[in-house]
Predict the 3D structure of the following.
Amino acid sequence: MKSTLCATLLLLTANIASAETVAMPAGFDINAAERFATLALACVHKEYPNKISHSLNSDADVEPPRKLTPAFYGCYDWHSSVHGHWLLARLVRTFPDAAFASSAREALRQSLTVENIAQEAVYLRAEGRASFERPYGLAWLLQLIAELREWDDPQAREMAANLRPLEQAA
């Protein structure tokens, strides 16, 4: 399942383009967007199974993924969760009137809160985590931030502002 989802997301990443700047690839229509949105929505808040790349500094570091990284705990691992959030943002930005748009917006709103991002930044700055998700996961984080900044939408602007502490930590 993980390899199928990753391969699917990578193909989408290579093929999807912003409707604001580039024409959509042939064959990528609302039906394809619905399928990808369904995949991302099924995983961004699915905590288990989960593979944590995690350095323990004390007993306090033994927590479930939703406590350690409350914004990006789903989709099996951190970078896949960030990627899934980027995918939802890109799909809603590209297909704002799609049936999945409200669910995708709600999933993004639920994850990208000030409180969740503050905990993500604390986690990233902790001792022994200087290489956490570098470069792959942090590259997806920067893509998510760029997607939200380029999107002319009030919710996107709020989420981009919420992500600022994590961007600074990265």
